[in-house]
Design brief:
Layout (H helix, E strand, L loop, with lengths): L1 H29 L12 H13 L13 H4 L3 H10 L4 H33 L13 E3 L5 E3 L7 E7 L6 H19 L6 E7 L7 H9 L6 E3 L3 H10 L24 E4 L5 E5 L5 H17 L8
Parallel strand pairs: 3-4, 4-5
Antiparallel strand pairs: 1-2, 3-6, 6-7
């Protein structure tokens, strides 16, 4: 039995060896030469070549492409540049710096605004002396003027007298500069009301006040009244003055008073004091900060 199977195995081996060269020759004949790739640049030639590969069982899953690998890949210079700069470019770094600086400025401005608002609210708190309140005086035309006439605008109130030798003229010169600077900063909006209240009603009649205030600025509103009326307003604003009550006409006497400008908001509430240490520029800065805060909150302002 073994002798019978040996010739059969030898015959199968010779047949398999003879079929391999024929398969290799047929496969080699089906693969084009290097020169043939030139003719494959057209679409019909590529289609015919693909069908030949499929017929011989050698088709590829990828479509044929004449684009070289070097053209598709990044150049070494691009790769080195990316590795040297990392994931961030100079544009992204500049944007990051600008955004950070803007946020710092915003939060600083907002912090200052909240601090000003907190101080203004504290002045209205329970148990603290209130600055400002109801009063009745007369303007330079003889018309009645009350606290309601101050509302709707930011008012800038100063107490003095026309016979003051030095302090009042200096402060009124500063007041005149502040008026012009605020008017320039608000672009001419009529939202700032400068007021001069006399502490010497016996000598500061409407005619005397009008002539005196015109020497400093035409926008200053002068107010006067009886001794009791002036005293009441000074009490409302916590202003000290030592004017004698009963004086004879032509009698000379001294007057002492507090030296402050009182900034009041459009609702008639006290906001801040401007003292002798303040310059026109610093005072204007404080006033404009409060005006801009008021506008930012969308609150109304009277412009008549």
């Amino acid at each position: 039995m073994a002798s019978t199977m040996r010739p059969l195995v030898q015959m199968i081996g010779r047949a398999s060896r003879s079929s391999v060269p024929s398969l290799e020759r047929s496969t080699l004949r089906s693969i084009p030469s290097q020169n043939a790739f030139v003719s494959l640049r057209t679409k019909p030639a590529r289609s015919a070549y693909t069908q030949t590969l499929r017929h011989n069982g050698l088709s590829s899953q990828r479509s044929f492409s004449t684009t070289t690998f070097r053209a598709r890949a990044r150049t070494m210079g691009q790769l080195k540049a990316r590795n040297s700069t990392g994931p961030f470019s100079w544009k992204s770094a500049l944007l990051f710096v600008i955004t950070g600086a803007a946020m710092i400025v915003y939060f600083r401005v907002e912090k200052e605004r909240l601090a000003r608002k907190r101080i203004a609210e504290m002045s209205k708190g329970v148990g603290r002396p209130k600055v400002g309140g109801p009063f009745v005086l007369k303007d330079l035309d003889g018309k009645q003027f009350t606290e309601e006439d101050l509302k709707g605008k930011y008012s800038f109130v100063y107490f003095g007298f026309t016979h003051c030798p030095d302090i009042c003229p200096d402060e009124l010169d500063k007041m005149a500069e502040i008026i012009d600077k605020v008017k320039e900063a608000t672009k001419g909006e009529n939202i700032f009301l400068p007021v001069f209240v006399t502490c010497d009603p016996a000598r500061d009649t409407p005619e005397v006040l009008h002539s005196y205030l015109q020497e400093f600025h035409g926008d200053i509103i002068g107010l006067t009244g009886t001794y009791e009326q002036v005293k009441n307003m000074c009490k409302q604003y916590r202003v000290y003055f030592s004017t004698p009550q009963h004086v004879n006409p032509g009698e000379d006497y001294l007057v002492d008073h507090s030296i402050y400008f009182y900034l009041m908001d459009p609702e008639g509430d006290f906001v801040e004091c401007i003292g002798r240490q303040d310059t026109p520029d610093s005072a204007t800065k404080v006033i404009m900060e409060h005006i801009n805060d008021w506008k930012r909150e969308g609150k109304p302002l009277r412009k008549d």
